[in-house]
Amino acid sequence: MSAENEGTDMFYVGFYEPSDRVKVLATQINEQQDIHVVFGPIDVLSKCCSLVFLDLRELPQTKRIYIIKAFTKEDVKVVGLVARGEEPRYLMQLVQVGITSLLEHHSFSTLLQAINSAQKDHSILPPSLLHLLKEKIVDMRQVEQESFAHRILNSGVNLTPKEIEIAYLIEKGLRNRDIAYLLDTKERTVKVHISHIYAKFGIKHRRNVMKHLKELRNQKKGASL
Fold first, then answer.
1. Comparing 105 with 214, which gets the higher pLDDT?
2. Residue 152 in contact with residue 171, Cβ under 8 Å?
């Protein structure tokens, strides 16, 4: 399996030091799907892959954060494979460092689902982490989301408070059903709000909206004053 995809638009998925079972599943994906799978060291995978799976169960805890950052600084999305029952606060730390999705179940279908979600800029998170996020959503609204809302308003886009909440979670990469869960509302209601957000930004695709929201978030504080 070659890692040479420069100059092509093929979608390459890397697996960094997977367990034997995960390696078998990755090989099956390579053989059965229109997805090119690569095994290799960090420097190879970060150059050729759009997405990398890290089997965190196989990595020393002291090296996990370093390896995640090594990929994310190269704009490579990272999916972490974790053991069931991991401490939600630890999983939260992984997301804050840059993990795109976290999988407690490691099967052919779940790996493929994570690949498809990453291509759509969606995240998959364990129920325990979603529950923790739900508990913390009020605090996040009061602190981080206030700054986020301020920058949106300064950009000239007049979103309602509910649209700002949903835009905040879109920028985090959450799927509609997860947003609905976190906000205690129906998924179809979330879809209506998202259509209004698209219209107000004048942007049609979720990926482009996410990119714009990230740009607003990353603006220097002084630029919004």
1. 105
2. no
* Beta carbons within 8 Å of 85's beta carbon, 6+ residues apart: 128
Name the token pair of 3: 């890692």
d(Cα 133, Cα 152) in Å, to the nearest integer? 22
219's enclosing H/E stretch is none
- Measured in residues, the chain has a length of 225
Give tens-digit pLDDT for 57-99. 888 888 899 999 999 989 899 999 998 888 888 888 888 888 9
Q: For 112, how many CA atoms within 13 A lie in the half-sphere containing its CB?
A: 13
pTM of the predicted structure, to 2 decimals? 0.62
- Cα 73 to Cα 56, 77, 98, 102, 176: the distances in Å are 18, 10, 9, 19, 27
**Quick one: angle between helices 187-201 and 206-218, nearest 10?**
70
What distance in Å separates the CA atoms of residue 78 and residue 81, rounded to the nearest whole number?
Answer: 10
CB contact at 8 A, 49 and 14: yes
H or E segment and range at residue 185: none
Q: How far apart are CA 177 and CA 190, in angstroms?
A: 8
Angle in degrees, CA 101, 103, 106, rounded to 5:
140
**Three-state DSSP class for 204?**
coil
| pLDDT single digits (tens) 97-135 | 889 899 999 999 999 999 998 888 888 888 888 877 777
